Each structure stands twice: as C-alpha cells, then as structure tokens.
Amino acid sequence: MSFWNRRKSLESVSARQSHSALRPTLGWLHLISLGIGGIVGTGIYTLIGVGAGLAGPAVIISFVVAGLVCACAALAYTEMSTMMPMAGSAYTYSYVALGELPAWFVGWTLILEYTVVCSVVAVGWSGYASGFIQALGIGVPDALLAGPAAGGVINVPAIVIALAVAGLLALGSRESATVNLILVFVKLVALATFVALAIPAFDAGNFEPFAPHGFGATEIEGAKYGMMGAAAVIFFAFYGFDAVSTAAEEAKDPGRDLKIGIIGSMIACTFIYMVVATAAIGGSRTDALAASGEPLAMVLRNLDHPVAAKFIGLAAIIALPTVIMAFMYGQSRIFFVMARDGLLPQRLSVVNEKSGTPALMTMVTGVIVAIIAGFLPLQRIAEVANAGTLVAFIAVAVCMLVLRKQAPNAPRPFRTPAYTIVAWAAIVGCAYLFVSLPGVTKLTFVIWNAIGIVVYFVYARYQSALARA
After folding, report:
1. Distance (Å, rounded) from C-alpha 431 to C-alpha 67?
2. Distance CA 387, CA 232 (A)
3. What digits encode the pLDDT tens for the residues 418-444?
4. Stated pTM of the model
5. Which of 12, 234, 367, 430 is the most buried (most CB within 10 A)?
C-alpha cells in the first residue's frame, strides 16, 4: 500500500492487542478536573499580565476571541473523541480521516507542543519553588536553581517536578487523576479568594483607554500588539481541554464522560478567566499588570492584602504541577499510540499489567521533559506550542468535515450542532491566530516539522504497522 493511501478505518481504530490496551478507569469528574488542571494554570496566573501589556483593558475581548475559537475546536474534539474513543487525540482522528502522512505531521506537531508546554511550566514552577526554598533559609547554590541560559548550571527543581509528575502518572491514571482533582480544587479556591478581595476595589477608570493598540495584530520589536495579537498569546491559556481527548481510551463511559469533560472544562474555564480578568483590571492599571511577573499577587498586595497575596503565590506552586500533569499525560498517550502504530519503536507501546498505564512511555516522556527543562533555554521556543496547537485544532475541524462526508451514518454519541459553521469558524479562527503569531515562532514551527518529514521518510514510513501489514 502506498503511503499516500494509508489510512485506518473507523473499525480498525478499536482493534489492538491486549498488551497495548489502556484500562478504562476515569469518570467525567476526573476528565473535567484534567481539563481544568491543564487550562487553569500559567495562563491566568501570568499571561493576564502579558495580554494586558499587548492589548490594554481590551485584553478581556482577547479572552473572548480566544475562548470562542477554542469553543468551536472543543465541539469538534467532542464529536471526534466520542466517535473514536481511543487514545491519540488529533493524531488518531487524522489517521482515519486524512491518512498516515497528515497523521504523522499532526502527531509530530503535538509532540513538540506537549513537550514544550511541560518544560516551560516546569521551569516556571521552579522559579516559584526556588523563591520558596530561599525564603525558608535553605542554602541551595544558585547554580542548581537555574539552567545555563539563566546563569546557572542545572535547574534541579524543574527536573525534580518533571520526574515526580511522570512517576505519579506511571502509578495509574485514576490515582494521578484523583491527586489532580484535589490540586485543582485548591487553585480554584485561590482564584475565588482573589475575585472576592479585588472586586470591592473595582475602579472603572482602569478601563480607559479601552483599546490603546487597536483591534488587529501589529508587530513591534518582535511582539504582536492589539486585541488579536494578545488573543494569539492568550490562546495558550485556553488549550488543555485537548488533553481530555487523549484520555478517551481510559474513560469508563466515553459517550457521556468525554462530552462532559471537554465541554464542561471549556465552559468553566472561560467563565473563570472572564471574571478573574475583569477583577484584575478593575483593581490595577494594565501597565502595572504587564510589568509584574505575578500580576494577581501584585494586585492583592497593592490592595493591602499581603496574606492573601502569599496564598495566591502558594496556590501557583500548587497549580502549575497540574498543568504539567495534564500535558505530560497527553504527551505520553500521543507517544504511546504512535508507537503502537509503528511510527515510533513499538516496544514503547507496552502497557504495565499492574497500573494499566504505558509506564515505560510515561517515564521516557518525563526524562525528555526533565532534560529540556533542566538545561535548555525556552523563552523563544515556548510560543511555538501555540503554533502546534492551532494546527492540531485545524486538523480536528477538517477531520470532522471529512468524516461527515465519508461516513455520514457512523455512530456519533455527540453531533456538533451546525457543524459546518462550527468547523469553518475553528479553521478560520485558528488560521488567523496562527498568522498573528511572531515571525520567529512560525519559523521555528516550520523547522521542527521539516525535521519531522525527514524522520518519517527515513524511519516511520517503513516501520508503520500498515506498511508491514
């Protein structure tokens, strides 16, 4: 079979060997917490300041735009994941609807996205943890608290948290999901505390001028200003619900649980973001938010709530590992399914009999993330995660359109309403946000996928399970 024509059938995606079958242990509450855990993290704790600097008070509109685009993508993900309740997310859907080469492209893109997100968040967590360690008076050399790019030698806290999360995930999906649920509750309490203290000090004057940089995306010194420029960056704060779709194979009742998990987490997080952003801008000028590395804590300190500000900082330390957990979970499942399909070494697709998880693949993922977080500079490459996610969202929307034509009568536990409008809204919206990204981000994305094409034609094309069949 020519690689141009290789694609899985809808029937074949559920046919796999027992040693590669993931154990269904997750309910809808676990999936919602996985989605919220992945979405609510660095985005609301730090990116609200970055977005305010790019768009001014109109950053609230930027949140709406990014949220609407993600909502359209989330509906497409829900239809695809309930139709094909298998691990692999956008990669698996592309393999069925578009073929092996597009699936490889999407899977390779997701590998970059998830790895970069995990590494960046691990480094961000290290910054909070290092400050906490030093505040306790523990004498740890600065060389062990930052990588070479930040003036140190090795970022030990980042390595520790990456390996700790990988170890927890390897123990079992239900165990790690339960821990994630508890940590998500803590950070939601912290955000509710912030809103309750900031809203009474609301100052409408902080919303003027509302849109100092206009609606579009204007590039100034490598950054895109304006509402759409901010939306392209803030988009990072919304994705995470796609990690829920990677758990499809481990859902107890995929038809019900995936719908609740994906759509529920998106609705909850969009509401949380709108309320927190309004409270933050009402409590502080946007230039002050933009200048702070911890904008929410800064607002509370300026409002004379120092204890609450410390609680917000502590909650950030608690919150960030849930983001690492959600994306490392998704990363390990993408790796796992690509290995199961032969596009990566198949020995990595073995499931541990005791835990029911791809323990080996999970630890490999953790080691890769730890190495990147411990040593490499991530500031420039971090934005490329947005590029990868936007491409994956476009692919899922295209898959939904293709399968509506190719398999109109296939069982669909969830059918996206007005699917043509929703799909094209996701495609056009994601494409516009992709164009709104800085030039260096798009160049990095192209280079990564050029490497991926070489890997495919040198290795994966010949090792594919479909090729050998």
Report:
1. 15
2. 9
3. 899 999 999 998 888 788 777 877 888
4. 0.78
5. 234
